[in-house]
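== Item description ==
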Amino acid sequence: MCSTCGLSLEAGTTALWSASQRIVSCETHPETKAVSIENVKFNAVDEEPVVLGGQVSSGVAGGSARAEHERRVQKREDRVTKRFPRAGKYIFALTDEPQSTRAWESGAEGEFAIGRLLNSLATKYDFRVLHDRLIPKSRANIDHIAITRFGVFVIDAKNYRGVVRIEDRSGFFEKSAPELFVGRRNCTKLVEGVKKQTSIVKGILSENSIDLPVQGILAFYAADWETFKFLRGQMEVDGILVNSKGLEAIVSREGMHSSAEIEAATHLLSITLVSAT
């Protein structure tokens, strides 16, 4: 059954397969009225970056994560074939990838899927989006930056499975200390990472006298939620939004900033935070 539209797929049907998530989806789907994070699935076909004003690349979502996965796969293959010159390729093909290598593939899938969603929303609501941007003097990168009439959204994509929830285990007389969980995994440290990325983007804009609000978002691609979508409030942990209502509801917010402000911010961020791919 297609994980996107629920269509029953007969044996022999051509479809898309995600090895890490073990899900299948149709090659094409009937046109839908709205896009949501739940119905954008990873496709292994490479996407070309969009060229923005001034010949600046928008970047390719998940590009650096995918390149790191391929580098690790090649390194492992070279190591195995060197150790077993005759049977190395067979041993390589029949043994599983280490979890650390699969994690890069899974991360690339999440970034790619959310990037495709953001590209669709950027066309629908007329805003700009940058993908896979290198942070200066760091090995880290920012997955996505959406520049809209409301402001700038710094988006960290995570391909985690499990139910997303926020728990506050502080005592009655203690300061509130909410923690973020996905399944049994405590993901509160991810909030600090997004806060740092958001601070970097704020600094770049402020230093160049561009007055746009900046908001951080944690976007969980494959996660589940405890309540029905229409009953959810917007989740927030220490100022960072969690996409409980979906990215569309967040990035489509109305704002008063002009197209000129959007283009100026996009150009500045794209040349300061260069594309990783």
Q: What stands out?
A: Confidence is low (pLDDT under 50) at residues 30-46. The helical segments are 63-83, 88-94, 99-125, 188-207, 247-251, 259-272. The two ends are 34 Å apart (CA to CA). The chain is about 35% helix and 20% strand.
